[in-house]
Design goal:
This protein is an alpha/beta fold and about 260 residues long. The protein has nine helices and nine strands. It has a seven-stranded parallel beta sheet with strand order 3-2-1-4-5-6-9, sandwiched between helices. The relative contact order is 0.12.
Amino acid sequence: MKNAYITGASQGIGKEFVKALCKNYNVFLIARSESDLKKVIQELEPQSRGILKYFTFDLSRKKEWEELSSILQKDTDFELLVNNAGFGTVGEFAELPLETELDEINLNVKALVALSHVALHSFKKRQKGFLINVASIAGYLPAPGSAIYAATKAFVKSFTESIHEEARNYNVFVQALCPGLTHSDFHRRAGIEKSKYPDFMWQDASEVVEESLNALRYNQAVCITGSVNQGAVTISELMPRGLLRRLSGKFLSLDGK
């Protein structure tokens, strides 16, 4: 049985990837909280056909993403990576703590790039492998009030589309997963009031993962989950950018109070 690695595996989308993949892979869970990782393994181990193990890393720290990269590089059975770890912040950029914003870039972008690099290097040599980088529909939009988050996800989407094309000749499947509002702990940590958004805009994490893995089978470069999100992206791409920026600001209550 081959090995899969999932970052941000302790809750939400990451946990659902563990649940889906543990039927066909040994799964290595990566997150910061050892207690949360142990809870996930205890819950999912009875339905797993492979081994479930964990590593505790804070991937906003260069030393720790380098340590994980070294583990991946040495694993001859490494076949699948889900780069799911990430976080967002809410507020006007000038008023947010700079150190937190830089940590957000480190985790959402730098760690993802480093882990993607070692994964693709390994997969190319073996002529097989699967890489899912979790972006967001926020990557399609200007997002006053979440400027760094949207910018990092735009990077992830563009970067992943590019490496998708580079990898396709080597039987390596690469996907940018772009969910929208998803029930998880992400929004509480970001300080986002969930009740602000209507129910129809939300998806369960299990739905996001199911759509992602279905799209991965066909080597779909970008997977926008849910018909609501797909429609929103289509409309946004037809809209003048100036108008889109203004509407985004009003929607996030940072403009036109």
